[in-house]
Structure formats: C-alpha cells, structure tokens
Amino acid sequence: MPALIVNVDHIATIRQARMGHEPDPVTAAHMAEMAGAMGIIVHLREDRRHVQDRDVDLLKATLKTNLHFEMAATDEMKAIALKTCPYMICLVPEKREELTTEGGLECLGREQFLKDFLAPFHEAGIRSSLFIDSDPSQVEAAAQSGTEYVEIHTGHYADAENFKERQKKLGKIIEGVRHAQNLGLKVNLGHGLNYQNIYGFSRVSGISEYSIGHSIISRAVFTGMTEAVKSMADIIQTFAD
Ligand code: PXP
Q1: Residue ranges making up the domain that contains 124
Q2: Count of domains in the chain?
Q3: At 101, is the pLDDT very low, low, confident or very high (cuts 50, 70, 90)?
Q4: Which helix (H) or strand (E) covers residue 74, if one does?
Q5: Whose CA is nearest to atom 6 of ligand 1?
Q6: Which residues have C-beta atoms less than 6 Å from ligand 1?
C-alpha cells in the first residue's frame, strides 16, 4: 500500500511571514502523524525561507513516524543530513529565485557525482531518493547513480492547462514509473498533487510514497477556519461593553 508523506514546509512559511513562533511545523507534523501520515518531509533550503534548522532537529527528536529530508546536493546540506540521520533524503535542484522546486534534478552526465554524493548516506543506512522528471534518460541516469528510490515529478501533470494535456502528462509519468521499476528502483510521486488530481494515480500500482504538502496545508486553513474564528469570537463576547 502506498504511504502518505506530509510536507509541512508551508506551515513554516506562515510562521516566517512574522518571523515568530507560530504556527509551528513541528506541531503540524505531530497532528499529521495522528491523522495517518506515514512520514513527514521538510525541505531545508539554503536561504532558510521556511523550514529552519531547529525544526529539523525537533522533528528528528520527536517524530513517531519517519523523517524525510528534502535537500540540495550541497556540502552544507550533506553535513546537516548526515548529522540528523533522517529516514530518507530526497535530492532536489534548488534555485534561490524559484517559488518552489520547479523541475527534476539533472541526473544525466552527473551519475558519478551523484553516486559519490550518496555514498556516505548509504554507508550511514540512510535511504536516498532523487526527484526527477519522468524522461527515460533521467530515469536511466538515476538508476546508474545507485539511488534506491526516485520521486517522479508530478508538477507538470498538476499544472497542465486542459484535460488532453493532463492525460498526456499522466501517460508520461506512468511510463516513467514503469521504466524506473523495471530498472529496480522504488518509486515515489510528488509535487502539485491535490484532492482532485491525485485520482489520476488511483490505478497505478507499485507506488511507495506520495509526498504532498501545499494542498493539505491549504485545505487545513479552511477546515480549521470556522473553529478558529469561533474561538476568538467566543473570547471577545465575554468582554465588557
Ligand atoms: N516533492 C518534492 C520534491 C517537492 O519539492 C515538493 C515541494 O516542496 C513536494 C513533493 C510537495 O509538493 P506540494 O507542496 O506541491 O504538494
């Protein structure tokens, strides 16, 4: 059965809007676990725009499920990840100016670099995943790198402008999934998945994990809105006229 891994980066985005203490992504992670998440993923970006080092430390110390650590393939992140020892790392490309991870990791021609980069993680018993586009050449290069998992980028499917385009992108992703599995890789899916487009994968067997963040956090804002406003209104009602 595939597992849901919840990305809590955007709880941290809201916190960083005020540079304060709330909402705490660690609390969100614990609530996600209680609701059935099989793991929690955070992306510690070089610019620390949302998740902070302290979040990673606290998640590692307190999660009851698995910590997944999304990171750029840099020396700084390698050192943090090896010290933290998450359940799995997922290598992603990272650009300072992007709003979110925009494309898959370039693996073609970088097989040896990736192999060397991943080696200390494998020695430490940390699983690895590469976030890639579904192109056959990227899948093959990822397999050459010695990673155990790939996460196939579903963002282009999620962002497709019409039904025909979406079906085309879905077909490409499914081909990528099968190609990766035939090469012995385990496959995760993620980026841009929401409560509607997730159904595209309902008949795709053999997926290990779905990594989902933005749509869950977005929905949580609304499902929690009534209660949150009511609580504040109730307090104010008790004040003097
Ligand atoms: N997988 C990867 C590699 C990502 O970079 C992200 C976004 O941080 C996700 C999954 C989750 O995407 P979303 O927030 O759109 O669900």
Answers
A1: 3-237
A2: 1
A3: low
A4: none
A5: 191
A6: 7, 9, 43, 70, 90, 92, 100-101, 131, 151, 190-193, 211-215
* Model pTM above 0.90: yes
Q: Which long-range contacts (CB under 8 A, 24 or more apart) does 12-19 make?
A: 12/42, 12/50, 12/51, 12/52, 12/55, 13/49, 13/50, 15/50, 16/49, 16/50
Which range is least confidently modeled, 88-97, 142-151, 226-235? 88-97
211, β-bridge pairs: 5, 190
Compute the average pLDDT of residues 37-64. 97
Q: Are strands 127-132 and 186-190 parallel, antiparallel or unpaired?
A: unpaired
Is 228 a residue whose pLDDT tops 90?
yes
For 199-237, give the DSSP string. Answer: GGGTT---EEEEEE-HHHHHHHHHHTHHHHHHHHHHHHH
CATH of the domain at 210: 3.20.20.70
The three-state secondary structure class of 192 is coil
